[in-house]
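The records we work with from here on pair a chain with its fold. These numbers are not coordinates but entries in a learned vocabulary of local backbone shapes. To see the layout at work, look at the sequence and tokens printed below.

. . .
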Amino acid sequence: MSFAYLFKYIIIGDTGVGKSCLLLQFTDKRFQPVHDLTIGVEFGARMITVDNNPVKLQIWDTAGQESFRSITRSYYRGAAGALLVYDITRRETFNHLASWLEDARQHATANMAIMLIGNKCDLSHRRAVSYEEGEKFAKEHGLVFMEASAKTAQNVEEAFIKTARAIYKKIQDGVIDVSKESEGVKIGQLGHGLSGQSGGAGSSSQGAQQKQKFRSRSKPKHIDNDEAAAAAESTSRKQQESVYTLHVVAGVVAAEVLEPVVALAEDAEAEEDADEEDDHQDHQEGAPHSLLAELELAHGAAVRAPRTGS
């Protein structure tokens, strides 16, 4: 699906606050009540519309455990938006917000839009943090605030889209320079007429060339469990929605080990967009491109991991 802009998000917060559930509700419109803890990172994507422009959200859901903080910090770089999440029924998750916010502002671009979300507002009878406390914290730190429920979907859509609108406004006001990849924004094929910047996705012909190069790699390198095994799998593709899982299965893994896998996932997404544009221009229909198949081709027998929650 062609887009005018691509915005990169990161979801952060303590373990168990519902980060993965928020992502799943937004991308797949469903709630999974039983989850294992997220290990490493998960990746989701969805198309939305901002000011009549198609915008692709690329969302990184991170593990909340302290042992994975070094990995989480590596994903702040190049993120245009962040969803900082706490659980309104667990006071300690609210008390840790200052630490998460300090990390975000230390490692991310100064222009990153941050949304504070008090999750699990459907459990108001177990509330340990008042709405007013969340609102006060947000005002003191210059954040946008909203309570939400990943279970009932209350305010989930609004939280992600409101963050996107804040990013879009920064672009229109000239605060975000879209030519800088570090800002977490890319211009797509539909966005070149909206901006004088020349960054973003390449032409469909370039995408086809990149795909051919990607597929022509022989003797793919195998990554075993002792080094790090990662897989990205499309779990749902319906209309303009999609969600992928990138799951680390080797305990605490150095961030530099993850970067090649992340790059493959992003390259495959770009190639898929280029393929769809080619199909549209040629009025032809073909079999859907499989991101997981491309990753397995490049990495050998990568370990498939189920989607998990925060």
About this structure: The mean pLDDT is 70. The chain has one domain: 1-310.
